[in-house]
Amino acid sequence: MHHISSTLLALSFGAAMTLAAAAQTGMQSGARQNSSMGKQSAGTASSDTNFLKRAAAGGLAEVELGQLAVQKASNEQIKQFGKRMIDDHSKANEELKNIAAQEHVTLPSKPDMKDRATRDQLEKLSGAEFDQAYMSDMLKDHKKDLAEFERASKTAKNPAVKSFAEQTLPVLREHLNQAEQIAPTQKTQASNMQ
Q1: How many CB atoms lie within 10 A of CB 137?
Q2: How many CB atoms lie within 10 A of CB 55?
Q3: How many CB atoms neighbour CB 170 within 10 A?
Q4: What is the pTM of this model?
Q5: Which helix (H) or strand (E) holds 135?
Q6: Residue 18, CB half-sphere, CA atoms under 13 Å: how many?
Q7: What is the CA radius of gyration of the chain?
Q8: What is d(CA 153, CA 59) in angstroms, rounded to the nearest whole number?
């Protein structure tokens, strides 16, 4: 009888250990699933997530470069353009943060390396030289942004991402039009100074 009790006790202990191990493995795989879902919700395709991240980094760059323009531009039109970049892109960045929070997407907290390098170069310039370089960058950047936002407005899977792209497009078009009007005057002024 003592031998049967010992065997049952050993079997019960083994079964309990097996159940505990299975439960822990299940919890760990569930935690892995939850943590991966925390990065991106099921409703946000990776292309949508990449668009949100690029738009956020670009928006942060536009604000930083706009602040530089307000401080360093010699032309009042460029100072006003810089102020508009700060205002419009700060507003868009807030909208992006809301969408990202709903979709569990972590956005960058600073501009990408290319935009930081542009900022570093612009910080070294002043006067008409700054004005021309800044407006040249704004032209190039807004053409690229328009293409990305147009693509997202047509191909985004997530309705919130698609709506954000569609609603932001008219503002980006205005920015490009304004930059196109200001930029030629900077080339003329720069060539007159030489």
Answers
A1: 19
A2: 26
A3: 9
A4: 0.73
A5: helix 127-155
A6: 6
A7: 27
A8: 17
Residues 102 and 95: their CA atoms lie apart, in Å, by: 11
Cβ within 8 Å of residue 36, ≥6 positions away:
none
Instruction: Answer whether 133's CB lies under 8 Å from 194's CB.
Output: no
pLDDT of residue 184: 75
CA distance 70 to 76: 9
- C-alpha 174/C-alpha 65 separation (Å) is 18
The CB density around residue 80, as the number of other CB atoms within 10 Å, is 15
Nearest to residue 178, comparing CAs of 51, 87, 53? 87
The percent of the chain in helix, strand and coil, each rounded to the nearest 5, is: 85, 0, 15
Residues 6+ apart with CB under 8 A from 141: 58, 61, 62
How would you write the pLDDT of the chain (194 residues) with one tens digit per residue? 544 444 434 444 344 444 444 444 443 444 333 333 334 444 577 999 999 999 999 999 999 999 999 999 999 999 999 999 999 999 999 999 999 999 999 999 999 999 999 999 999 999 999 999 999 999 999 999 999 999 999 999 999 999 999 999 999 999 999 999 998 776 545 444 44
